[in-house]
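Box S2. Input/output pair 1.
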Amino acid sequence: MVLFRFIQGKDIFEAFYKKDLAKRLLMSKSASIDSEKSMLGKLKRECGSQFTFKLEGMFKDMAVSKDLMLSYKERESEGVDLSVTVLTTGYWPSYPTDSVIIPAQISAVLDKYRTYYLNKHSGRKLTWQHSLSFCTIKATFGDDSSTERKLDLRKELNVSVYQGLVLFLFNNSTKLSYSSIAESTAIEEEELCRVLQSLACGKTRVLKKLPAGKDINSTDNFEFNTDFRHKLFKFKINQIQTKETAEENINTTEKVFQDRQYQIDAAVVRIMKARKTMQHSLLVSELYNQLKFPVKPVDIKKRIESLIERDYVERSKEDKNVYHYVA
């Protein structure tokens, strides 16, 4: 926390911290929830409740979702072991929506939960974020009819929903082309290539790529790998991770700067409403005292000009360095 006190752009820190915290919570990768909450408490004492409001909301969503699932499972008996985490849009980072094709059996289960949730919370809207979801698939490898042999070939695969959608197609076919997989799943092209690489080109090759190679092409074909073997009964097939690009970092930073504009606007209006009339230099000085992030004079000037255009503030006709609040 000593180093944290020296950070000037604490709102930028909050944006990246929220993004990483969301990954840890949703992927169950946090080393300790108690440690996460302890860190949250330190941030709250240092910066106030407004700074940690959204972060606390994320933990609240996790707790409420857990209770909601317990209530749902007491009432409903499903062949699929479903676990849903409901995220409040304002608390969590924004995620791109997808429109992948979910198998009818799974879609029916999701629709049932949606009906249950909306009956319990009328007026709300649920949007499935399949890109954040995981599933466990039971698979049997090999073609030996021996019962004893088959027991050794039964496995449970922990995969992403995208990986699961691709594997699900091989229930009805032993060989599929890239185009048929793309058409049947509607997974975005770049994401589909990563999914197929993880299944057919990684360390855990449950699919065979024809022709063999590390790169995925639209002319490739894929077969279910009946020769696949693994020493563990249950294992995870890792996804091909995409490194956070400079562009993604810039987008996160730009969102923070956009939020700063709103905060500057609100501070100017608040000050002018209280003072009615004020000189430019005094207004800038007051803004420096109220704003909790570094801001350049040129940025303040731009926001004042924007407020003048929107008739929140007007310049004095006698002195251009004096502003009047427009009621």
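Box S3. Input/output pair 2.
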Amino acid sequence: MDPTDSGTEDAVFVNENDAEEVIDLDNGNEIDDSASWVTENEVDILLGSDIDGEEDEEDDNVEGNLIRDDSIQVFRQHSMHSVLAATGGKDDHAFVWNINDGQVLFECSGHNQSVVSVGFNSKSTLLASGDLDGSVFIWKIDTGVVVDHRQFSEIQWLKWHGQGDVLMIGTGSTDGTSGDIVLWDIASGQERYLSGSGSTRCNAGKFLPDGKRAVAGYDSGAVRTWNLKTGACIHSFNAHRAPITAVDCHSDKDLVLSASVDNTASLLHAGTGQVLKIYANNSLPSRMDEGGDDVEAGVFAASFSPSIDFKFLATGTKSGLMTIWDYSTHVERVRCQHTAGIERLVWHPNGLFVYTCTSDGRIFLWDSRNGQELNCWLGHRKGIYDMDLSRNGNHLITVSYDKTARVYDTAKFN
């Protein structure tokens, strides 16, 4: 299906001024590089994005002065107790703001380098913000006051534990070295380092559902599981030949999914240490950029469906291909081709629909059962590099190289 055609009857081309609400806070700051979002009585975290993207790419969505803008809220500075969002940027600042009215609750000042990762804790009481210089600040949400501040190596990502105020921090320098993971207990102030022999930069990480283990992916292509109590490496998987771009854990089973620049995704068993399956995208459609050069084709997004009934996982590539796989049979079910590279994918809470965002500023919703494109949202003038969906599925937030964060109403698909 052509991604430029949303297939919806209510799609309307409008000027940006016709959006339901536009809040202009543009002060010339650099783009946002990370985003996090918290809803009433629950937390959903969107962390870390590569800041080495093409900031000056041409806007493929603009035709003269006319652009379709499907967002219900636009924020131009950065980028819930009704709804809160947090974003950080290359201007060395992070902000916490309300998506209902765009009001900034407080500014996270004190960073001296690009803020590349932010996240709310499980109780919605604390926010962590980390920058390229290795500084991590802990902020109290109700007051905007700094609770603690530590200095580590260059930050790649941050993840909060789901049951306590323990922050997991992935580090590593741009030359690919020094890939330690730090576990920081905020209450006690204690730190534990997970340092594997010969570790390279740690690009991705996640707590396993039992809360006692974690999985991490490295620049070397290695994927490791860790015992959080002892700090020991449980298993080291060598399923990839190039840097890891993403990892995910199944919510119900002892399964781990990893994605890599080598154009593969691997299904791993965290309990046995087995590589169960390597999903290769060997027959990708050919696509070139405007200059006639081949487009990068690594797998940069991978995630399990949250559904227990449908044993699906999704992978997304820089060449614009999303593939839905049945991980119980390892059969490829459907392919969904985009006109630009896939930056992120997020499953709808129903476990059947998948949101994707692309480097040409579009957001898509797909039915994983048949590959049908359910909707396409526009509004961004440059590529999207991160997005998150509220847990009730009613709102989607995106951040873009056009220096805006946008909020989309997705309630009709619940």
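Caption for Box S3: The mean pLDDT is 80. The first strand starts at residue 32 and ends at 39.
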